Sequence to fold (148 residues):
Amino acid sequence: MTERRFLVLNGPNLNLLGTREPGIYGATTLHDIVAGLEAQAASADPPASIVALQSNHEGELVDAIQTHGPGSKAIIINPGALSHYSIAIRDALTGVGTPTIEVHISNIHAREEFRHHSVISAVARGQVVGLGVDGYRLALDFCLQTYQ
Ligand code: CA2
Fold:
C-alpha cells in the first residue's frame, strides 16, 4: 500500500517562530507545530505521515517541491515573504501539480499593502489566513479528509 504523505514547507524566517514577535506570530515554535502535525497525521484514518522542511532559501524550497511534491498527496506551504514575489515557487508548484494549501499565520490583508497580494494564491487549492498557527492544523485537517 502506498503511504499517505503530506509535505509541509515553511519559508524564510519561520524558524524564528516562538522566539520573536509573539504579538504577530504567536509563542509556538516551528518544532512544536511540526510535532503537532506529525501526531495529527499519525492518528488519522488512514494514518499519514509528514515530510517537513523550513528554509531561508528560495532554491531549497523549489528543490523540496520538486523532490517531495510528486510523492505527496498535498503540499501545505507557508512561503513567508516569498509568497509576495516568488514566481519560482509558484512555477515549481504548478510544475509538480500536487494540490497545495497556502497558510499564513497573520492576516496578510490587514497588514502592509505589500503583503496583500500572494503570487502563490492563484495556483493554490485554498488558503488559511490570519488564524494563527492553528492554520497549519486546519490545513492538514482538510488535506487528511480530502486526499485519501
Ligand atoms: O503571516 C505569515 O505567515 C507570513 O507568511 C509570515 C512572513 C511574512 O513575510 C508574510 O507576509 C506573512 C514572515 C515570517 C517571519 O516569521 C517570523 C517569526 C517570528 C519572528 C520573526 C519573524
Remarks:
- The pocket of CA2 is lined by residues 13-14, 16-17, 20-21, 25, 78, 80-81, 83, 104-106, 108, 115 (CB under 6 Å).
- The chain has a mean pLDDT of 97.
- The longest strand covers residues 5-10.
